[in-house]
Amino acid sequence: MGRILRLRHAFLTHPDIVKTLILLRHAKSSWDDASLDDHDRPLEDRGRRAAPVMAAHLDDQGFTPELVLCSTAVRTRETLELIADDLDAPPVEYDPGLYLAGPGRLLRAVRAVDGDVKSVMVIGHNPGIHTFALGLCDRSTGSNLRRLERKFPTAAVAVLEFDVNSWDEIDQGTGRLVHFMRPKDLPSARRHRL
Length: 194
Hints:
Layout: H1 3-13, E1 19-25, H2 45-61, E2 67-71, H3 74-83, E3 92-95, H4 103-111, E4 119-124, H5 128-136, H6 143-150, E5 157-162, E6 175-181, H7 188-191
Parallel strand pairs: 1-4, 2-3, 2-4
Antiparallel strand pairs: 1-5, 5-6
Helix pairs in contact: 2-3, 4-5
């Protein structure tokens, strides 16, 4: 079933779907300068190529956030800069608490989002963002979940939908994993740039 038909079906069968969470792990970072603090590590060339390709993919799929929550680390900020053109310039909140945040801290940040916001992107780090995504998923998600369970690599994105009216209602096991994409999964026309 095509994306538009799936969305229409989801709306008709689940009219209370109002919240979409887009979880993006920062693109691949560089370890070339051992003198840099971890927080200050920039992206490497492969990461700089992967981020805009993933952003174009999200845009093609219709996943556009109304708000971005971003770690203050250099690699997350650079990832955001590289994807910004495909995001339609949503407001951005840089949160130092998201740097290497665990699932509990990530959940608190998302639950604090204003209820009028329908879609939020979080740009963060492993292992926290991977554990957070897995914890939010209901267990009936299928092949996307099995792929997510294996690994959440750099520049990968997971998109979850929630049948809630307010972000403070989301909890463990309440999200449907509707999309999971890794850079290496992209069609060859885009992958050759990575």
